[in-house]
Design goal:
This protein is mainly α and about 120 residues long. It has 4 helices and no strands. α3 packs antiparallel against α4. The protein is flat and about 70 Å long.
């Protein structure tokens, strides 16, 4: 048995799960509409309240902080490789990933504060 039947079975299973989810959701919504429920219950409160901050500002903020984190990681990696006994590959890779993750975390918090401020 090759990989073909496995991928076909996996596709059928995923399709079946999505079909059941959407058909059941549609039936539930139709039943609520027939009972006279308001259509606003289908949307969450966060979806109804739109942020006034454009998405491009948040994207540029996160990308810039990520790139600054990667740059700082390269700088710290070169310092670690030059002045310690840490292997060069480990120093560069570890510091780049650490600082990139820190940059993403800081960018997330700054974006959250930007959205809350508006």
């Amino acid at each position: 048995m090759g990989p073909g039947p496995v991928f076909i079975a996996l596709f059928i299973i995923i399709f079946g799960i999505f079909y059941l989810h959407y058909s059941t959701r549609n039936k539930e919504r139709l039943a609520l509409i027939e009972k006279g429920a308001d259509a606003s219950i289908f949307f969450s409160a966060k979806a109804q309240k739109r942020s006034s901050v454009p998405i491009w500002k948040i994207l540029i903020l996160n990308i810039s902080v990520l790139l600054m984190g990667i740059g700082a990681g390269v700088f710290i990696g070169s310092i670690l490789a030059a002045y310690t006994l840490i292997q060069e590959e480990v120093g560069y890779t570890g510091s780049i990933f650490l600082m990139a993750g820190l940059g993403l975390f800081i960018g997330f918090n700054l974006s959250k504060k930007l959205v809350e401020k508006e």
